[in-house]
Protein 1
Amino acid sequence: MLANGKIRLTVAYLVKPNFPMTNFSTHNPLAAAHYADAARQYAVTVQENVPLARDTYRLRLHCPDLACQILPGQFLMVRLAGSDDPMLGRPFALYDTVLGPTGRPVGIDVVYLVIGKMTGRLAQCEPGSRLTLWGPLGNGFSTEPVEHLVMVAGGIGQTPFLALGRQFTGQRVYGQRRRSESPAARVTLCYGVRSESYLAGVSEFQQAGIEVRISSDDGSVGRHGLVTEVLEEVLAEPPAATQSSSPPPTLRAIACCGPEPMLQSVARMAHQHQVPCQVSLETPMACGIGICFSCVVRVVQPDGSWDYKRTCVDGPVFDAEKIAWE
Amino acid sequence: MADGNSNHGNSNQADLPCSSPVDLSVTLGRLQLKNPVLVASGTFGYAREMESLVDLSRLGGILPKTITAEPRAGNAPWRTVETASGMLNAIGLDNDGIEAFLANHLPYLASLDSSLIVSIAGRTQQEFVSLLAQLSEQEAIDGVELNISCPNVSGGVDFGTDPALCERLVTVCRQACCLPIIAKLTPNVTSIPQMAKAAEAGGCDVISLINTCQGMAIDWRRRRPLLGNVMGGLSGPAIKPIALRAVYQAAQATRTPIIGIGGIATLDDVMEFFVAGASAVQLGTVNFYNPAGSMTILDGLPAALAEAGASRVADVVGTLETR
C-alpha cells in the first residue's frame, strides 16, 4: 500500500508463523476483524457502585442481554442517562459477568479509576441511577488453549483479566462459548501498581485460582520495581508445576493491558522469549462502534508497511507483533 | 435484523398520538427521500457498523464516509477531543479510496432500503469529475454530496471558501454526471449567503450545511495541541446555533432546497431546522454518543409535525416569523 502515501515502517520483529491468535475473517467488507454486529443500546440501572481501592470502583449493572453475550477482552460504552455532560460515552472493559439465581449471566461488572469528568460523575452514582450503554464491542482475547497463561496488568489495566483468568482456569464460561475442555494448567497475573492503596480485586483473582504476583512503584507492596521485572521472573520459571496429560501446542502465552510504554516493553520481552503476546489497547475513542475513525493505531500490514486501524473494531486486542509501536 | 427489537423504536405510526396521517416524504430538487432524517457523512462509517443498533431501512438517507480517488491514511492521533457540549475531530478523510468503496461497501449499501448519497472529496476539479464518472455508472446511488468543506485536509478546501471556485466546481460536476448534486458548505467563511448563491449558480440540487467549525484544544501544561493535526473541526450541540443561523441565511439567500446539519440531537432540534428553512436534516455527532438517536427522532417526528399543524414536512419549512 506504499502507492497510497502511507509510510513504510521497518519492522524489527519477525512474525512467528505458528502464532496462535484466532485467524479472523479476512473477507469482512469493513476491513475490520470485527464490527459491532451484536451491539445493542440499553438503558440500564446501577445495582452497586462500591470502592475497591483508592479512586477505584466496581460498577454493577443489570443487563441480562449483554451479560449473556460479552466475552473477556470485549468492552462496552457507558454514558450518563439524560445528561450531555460529558457528551461522549466512555469505553469500559468487562470485569466480570454477574450470575443470576439460575446460573445465567444477568449483570455486568466494570471496574474504573477516577481520572476525569465521566469517571468522577460515575463515582457519585447511587444504586438505582440510570445509565445508557451499548455493547458488546471489540474482539476479545484469543481462546486458543495454552498450558500457562500469563496476564500482565499495569494499574487499572487489570480490568479485563478477572474474566479472562476465570475462563482459562475453567471456572466460568462467557458468551455462547462452550466450557473449555482443556483449561490452562496455570494462570498468573503480574500486577503492577503505583502503591498498595491502588491494589484492587486481588482476593477475587486468587479465589478464581489465579496466581497473583505484584510489583509497586514505591515498594509499598510486592516487588519494588516494574511489573516487567515480575514478568521476567515468571518467564524464567517452567510453564507449569505439573503439566497436563496432553499439553496444548502452546506452552505459554501472554495477555497484556496497561500504559503503552509497559505494553511495548512486554511485547519486546515476549518476542525475545518467543512467547505469543496479545495486547489490549486503550486509545481515545468517541463511539466504540467503528463509525468515527478516532481510535486508530498503527498496525503492520502483510507487505511490511503500516496502516491506521480502528482499535474499537479491529481490536482492542491485537497480536503484539502486529503493532507498529511509535 | 431482529424483529421487535426495542432499540429500533416504534415504527408503527398507527400507535402514535396523531389524528391525521403525516406524509414524511420530501422532495429536494431531483432528490426524493422517504423521510427527512438522514445520517451525515463521517459519522456513520459505512452503515454496516450500525446495523445492529439502528434499523437502517427507516432512515431517509445514508451518507457513508467521504471517499477520495486514492486511499488516504488520515491524520496522526489524537484525532478527536471532547469539548464543552461538543467534540473536535481531525480524522483527515481516512478512507481506502473509491475502488475499495465500490468493491467492499457499495454492495451492502445498495442492499439497504434507504436512499444512498455518496460523499466525495477531491483536491482538484478533475478529481471530482473522475469520481463522478465512476459513481454515475452505479444504479444504487441516489445522489452525491460534494464535500468542499472538510477543515482537516490540505487541498480542496478552497472550493468551499472561494465563491468563484465553488460555482465553477458545481457547474463542472453538474455537467459530469446526471445524479442529483448536494453541495456541502463550511461555516468557516465570511458570508454564508455568498457561498450559498455560488453553489446555487453552479446548479446544485441541494445545499447542505454546515460542516464543522474550525477549532483547537490545548494542553497548557505541556504546551501541546491535543489533536495530532493541531487544528480540527468542532461538532455536536455546541455548534447548533451556528448551524441554525447558517441554514436561515442560506434559505433567505437562495431558492435551493437545504439540508440542515450541525449539532442536531433531538426532535426539537430537527423541528427548529425545518422552521429555519431546512427541508431535511443530517444527524452527525449524535450517532457517536446516542447510536439509536435517529430512531427516537423518527418515532416522534409525525406527532411533532402534527402538533405544528403540518400534514407534510414542507408545511413547516422556512416558516420562521421574525416580526
Protein 2
Amino acid sequence: MYSDIFLLATAISGVLALAALRLGLPAALAAVAAMLLFLVPGKGALAALPYVGEVSVSMGYHKLPFVAVSVILGLLVALYSPPYLRHLGAPNWYYGVHALYVLSLVYVVLFDNLVFVFLALELSIITSFLLIWYFGYGNRRFVALLYFVWAQAGSMLFLIGVALSGSFSAGTFAAAASPPCWS
Amino acid sequence: MGLLIKMGTAGVHFWLPYAHAEAPTPLSALLSPVHVGLMAYWIWRLRAGAGWPLDALFIYGLATAVYGSLLVFREADFKRALADSTVANMGLLLAAASIRDGAISYAATAILFVGHAFAKAALFMLAGLYIVSLNTRSIGEARWDGRLLAAGALGFVALAGLFGINLIGKAYVATGVPPSLSAAALAVFALVSTAVYSLYLFNQMYRAGEGEVEYPAAMYAAVLAAAAAPYLLLLALPLWLA
C-alpha cells in the first residue's frame, strides 16, 4: 500500500530532518535521500476527515518528474551548501530547515487532497521564510516579510478557490457554477 | 489567481525578484526553479475541473515571458537577473500548462519544468560560487577559467532553450499556440526573447574576462551536474515519452 510507504518515508525523512537541526549536513543528506522512497508508484488514503474528506496521496507517471527533480536538486543543493554556509557563518540548523523545505515541496505534489496541498504550501512558505529572514541579503527582513505576505496571499486565494468549489479532492475537482456559499 | 501569484506572473510578480535574489543562494537554487514551478503542475492538474479560459491564460503566459525577459536587461546583479528570468520562464510554464490538448500540455509543462529547474539551479549555484570565491554579485565581474565558462555555457544555452530538453519543451509550447496571427506573433516574440536574454547574460559573463578563480570543488561539481542534466536527460526523454 502506498500509504504505508508514504508514512514510512515521512517518518524517516522527518526524523532525520529534525536531527539535522542539530547534526547538520550528514543528517540533512540522509533525510533528503530518504525522500527517494516517495518515488515508488502507488496510491493510498491516509485517513478520512470530516468536511475535508479522504486524505489521499499518490505517486505516478504525471507526478514523477516534479517530485524526482525536487528531491535530486534538494540533494545537489545540500552537497553544494557547506562552503557557502561557512561563508555566511550559518549554523547547523540551516540544514535541518533545508531538509524540511525539500519535504514540503514533495508534499505539495504528492497530496491529492487540496487542503493538504495548502498545508504543504504553508510548510514551504514558513521554512523558506525562516531562511530568508536569518540568512538573506540586503534588507532581508523586509524582503522576507514581503515574500511571506505575497506567498500567503497566493496560498489563501488557492484555498478559498478550492473551498468555493466544494470539492477538496484533486481527482473530482470542479469549479462550482454557483459556489455553495452563494446559493 | 492564488497559483498565479505564487508563480509570479506579470502584474503579481514584483515580490519574486526581491525574494529570489535576496534569499541565501542555496535557497534561491530551490525557490526559483522548483517551488514556483510546482504551481504549474497544479494549474495543469486542476484546469479540466476549473473551467479556466485556457487561450487567455496561454496568451497571458506568453506576455509574462516577454515582460520577464525585458526585466532581465535592467540588471547587473547576477542573482537579480536570474530572478527576473524566472518571471519569464514562469510565463512559458503557464503557457505550457494552458495548451488546449491535455497530453501536449502535460509534456510541455513537465519538460519545461525539469529543464528550467536544472538550468536555473545551476546558474544560481554558479552565482553563489562567485559570491564565495570573488565576493561579488555582479555578473560583469564574474571572471572565469575554462571550467567555469563551460558550466556557464551549458547553463545559459539550456536556459535559453537552444538545446537540451528545454528546446523540446519550447517546441511543445509552439505547437500549442491558438490559431490566430497575433497569438502566433506573440509566441515567436516570447520564445525568442527568452533565448535572447540568456545569451545577453552569457555575453555579460564572457566580457568579464578570463582570470584565476579559486573555488571549492564540491560547489563546482554541483553546478556542473545541474548544468549538464538538461542535455543528459535528452537521452532519457524518448523512454519517458514512450
